[in-house]
Amino acid sequence: MNLRTPRISIIMGSTSDLPIMKKAADILNGFEIPFEINALSAHRTPAQAMEFAKNAYDRGIRVIIAGAGGAAHLPGVMAALTPIPVIGVPINASISIDGWDSILSILQMPPGIPVATVGLDGAGNAGILAVQILATGDPEVLEKVKKYKKNMEQKIVKANKELEKVKYEYRV
Questions:
Q1: High-pLDDT (> 90) share of the chain, %
Q2: What is the pTM of this model?
Q3: How far is CA 58 from CA 7, 66, 100, 129, in A?
């Protein structure tokens, strides 16, 4: 794997989305997946957004994670312009209506333009989903995903052992 060629691109409508989108970057970094992260607006930089989407595959990008708040058109614009999978992250932005406008803008795409949509502010899950998509064609990444899931299982097993120590009068 060439560490200089990003395989996943994280984009967001504004740098104010970074506190949320950072969660996807942290996941990708933990899996040692080369990625890029940029602000790119479907509304304020439409020409750059179009250029980005049309050239993403040729640059080595295999999954796009697109976060947006409010009207949240960025994920859909990406999906319309590129043949690679797009994962949308609805963001509860300052201009958002409790995040519902973002969720529905990303979730309710027209037929033929799918966007995989994670929960509100769910950039961490978007990062995991992106890694799982890559894993379908990369045995090394697949092993990392299996290890990650095994570690999650072990955390719950350990947590349950700790819960056994918690005493309640009527606990059976």
A1: 94
A2: 0.93
A3: 11, 18, 34, 21
